[in-house]
Specification:
Elements lengths: L9 E5 L4 H12 L3 E6 L2 H13 L4 E5 L5 H15 L4 E4 L14 H26 L9 E6 L12 H23 L4 E8 L5 H12 L6 H10 L9 H12 L10 E4 L6
Parallel strand pairs: 1-2, 1-4, 2-3, 4-5, 5-6, 6-7
Helix pairs in contact: 1-8, 3-4, 4-5, 6-7
Length: about 270
């Protein structure tokens, strides 16, 4: 059997309407999983789900603000009902607001904390409750959190974002320990994506110019590439393939770890 085969798995991908999240949802479906996209971007999320379904996979959309417990309750219930189970969560939803430390805005920082940390923690909470024995799904499963290379490097202008993604790493490791010790049957891992030229990545390149750190977006991107041993930016498929691996039986003895998918930038 192909260890990367996800046939029969039932996945919920947060922030799956676009960018890396959409690529992850598509890759999971291509590997055989049924996929539910959870996002605040409803029209785009439905469009992405429809595109996946058009390729022959089972896919759906559910509105999900990851900072709200009630939305998580509804999203998990919809996943179980529409897909017939729930054994794979990808905590991908996240935001980045660039600021020099000397210019940090408290409201912006709290927003990143709420989405990136609280949202990830609530996702793990609801996944554990649903996947553990006697839960709504009750068959164990996997959780893959999306951290960032920002958790492992000191790149200027992203102190708040870096802090939140470092927290995702810690949540992953403690969650994996608890899930194992308490017999939930759930593996928990995270990946550290390098810079990918999605809408968020391109905005970051422009924002660090506005902050006075680089002369142009091209210079900022050149700095990232210069710090990356493999000499290029990341691609959505690089991240998506890593998530498929950590979701599959090929990684069956891996939990509580962070997989760098950054071309070596964070080494």
């Amino acid at each position: 059997m192909n260890g990367m085969d996800l046939t029969g798995r039932k996945a919920l991908v947060t922030g799956g309407a676009r960018g890396i999240g959409a690529g992850i949802a598509q890759a999971l479906a291509a590997a055989g999983a049924a996929v539910m996209i959870g996002d605040v971007l409803a029209p785009l999320g439905r469009e992405t789900a429809a595109g996946i379904a058009a390729g022959g996979a089972k896919a759906g959309f559910v509105p999900l603000d990851v900072t709200l417990d009630g939305d998580w309750d509804a999203a998990v219930a919809a996943t179980v009902e529409e897909l017939g189970g729930f054994d794979l969560l990808v905590n991908n939803a996240g935001i980045e607001i660039t600021a020099l430390v000397a210019d940090i805005d408290a409201a912006d920082l709290r927003r990143m904390l709420d989405v990136n940390i609280v949202g990830t923690a609530l996702g793990m909470k609801h996944a554990f409750r649903a996947m553990r024995p006697q839960g709504q799904a009750g068959k164990g499963g996997t959780v893959v959190n999306i951290a960032s290379v920002a958790a492992t490097i000191a790149f200027p202008g992203i102190a708040g974002y870096s802090a939140t993604k470092s927290a995702v790493d810690r949540l992953t490791r403690v969650g994996a320990m608890e899930a194992g010790k308490l017999g939930y049957g759930v593996r928990v891992n995270c990946i550290y994506p390098g810079l990918v030229p999605t809408e968020m990545g391109q905005k970051l390149a422009g924002d660090v110019v506005t902050a006075g750190l680089f002369a142009s977006p091209e210079a900022a991107i050149g700095e990232v590439i210069g710090q990356t041993p493999l000499g290029r930016l990341g691609e959505v498929r690089d991240m998506a393939d890593a998530v498929v691996f950590l979701s599959s039986d090929a990684s069956r003895f891996i939990t509580g770890t962070g997989l760098a998918v950054d071309g070596g930038m964070g080494m």
